[in-house]
Specification:
CATH superfamily of the domain at 16-31 and 38-120 and 185-281: P-loop containing nucleotide triphosphate hydrolases
Largest sheet: 6 strands, mixed
Structural class: alpha/beta
Strand content: 15-25%
Shape: globular
Number of helices: 11
CATH architecture of the domain at 16-31 and 38-120 and 185-281: 3-Layer(aba) Sandwich
CATH topology of the domain at 16-31 and 38-120 and 185-281: Rossmann fold
Helix content: 25-40%
Length: 282
């Protein structure tokens, strides 16, 4: 049985938190000092829906556009075309000032917490940094908030003065999760956030994420190339190929009945496909 809290198979009850419609992103390589400019199409008419309080798994091979989509959704990249709707608001029509409140409502957790966390800051300072930037609370209140979040993610309050390199890989990812939770977001984007961890740490973090989702009604976009991980946590799965979404279904239906040819090939290449299907039906 999967570890997520949402054991439903019908998802019609959950309203969309995110709707991405025909999203495109182009990068221009080269410039004024070069003879030629090359346009790289990183996203091409990608569309998907993430329902509130659920987990959408996003799978696809390296270079398919998953991380570009995540960065656009996290407001770190401006799309070249299409629209991103969040809780009924069209983010792509807003200017930078109007987007400010959405930066706290959408948080991105990267694959490598070591590069994402400031090595000079203590654990408590890392967690409270977003609160400090937002000017929230007193210094004492922010410290108490940091200790509360450390407890929620399974880190001892005694470690508040430790720096990132004094933690293990799994503990650093817990620290990154605590930092992301500081601003009480509605959506967490996990971009290969568990892929560098061993199986034991992956399982423990899946359980933690499920508990946090249940406690805070969080919505997750879980990006991974690991189908086993996706099968364990996702309510729905979207498949990305050649910079677009080719299929989105409930996880149970997709693993049992993949419709698109690329999805079929992707699942057929996994030696554990049979065990994944059996696990989901258990």
């Amino acid at each position: 049985m999967r570890l997520g809290p949402n054991q439903h198979t019908e998802l019609d009850w959950a309203e969309p938190l995110v709707r991405i419609e025909r999203l495109s992103k182009r990068y221009v390589q080269g410039g004024a000092l070069t003879r030629s400019r090359v346009i790289v199409q990183a996203l091409n008419d990608a569309s998907l829906t993430i329902r509130r309080g659920t987990t959408l798994g996003l799978i696809g091979e390296s270079g398919s556009g998953k991380s570009t989509l995540a960065r656009c959704l996290a407001l770190l990249e401006k799309p070249s075309g299409g629209s991103i709707w969040f809780s009924g608001d069209n983010l792509t029509e807003m200017d930078s000032r109007d987007l400010l409140p959405f930066h706290r409502r959408i948080q991105l957790i990267f694959q490598d917490p070591t590069s994402a966390l400031n090595p000079r800051l203590t654990a408590a300072e890392i967690i409270t940094e977003p609160l400090t930037v937002q000017g929230e609370g007193t210094k004492l209140w922010r410290r108490r908030r940091a200790l509360e979040l450390m407890d929620q993610v399974g880190l001892s309050a005694r470690w508040e003065q430790r720096r990132p390199l004094e933690f293990s890989g799994g503990q650093r990812q817990r620290l990154a999760i605590a930092r992301a939770l500081a601003l009480e977001p509605e959506l967490l984007i996990l971009d290969e956030a568990l892929s560098s961890l061993d199986l034991a740490n992956q399982e423990m973090l899946l359980e933690l994420l499920a508990d946090l989702q249940a406690a805070h009604t969080l919505t997750y976009l879980h990006i991974s190339h690991d189908l086993r991980l996706v099968s364990r946590c996702a309510d729905e799965v979207a498949v990305m190929n050649e910079r677009t979404i080719v299929e989105q279904k409930s996880a149970q239906e997709l693993f049992a009945n993949p419709g698109h040819r690329y999805t079929q090939e992707l699942l057929a290449a996994m030696p554990s496909l049979e065990s994944i299907c059996l696990e989901r039906s258990a």
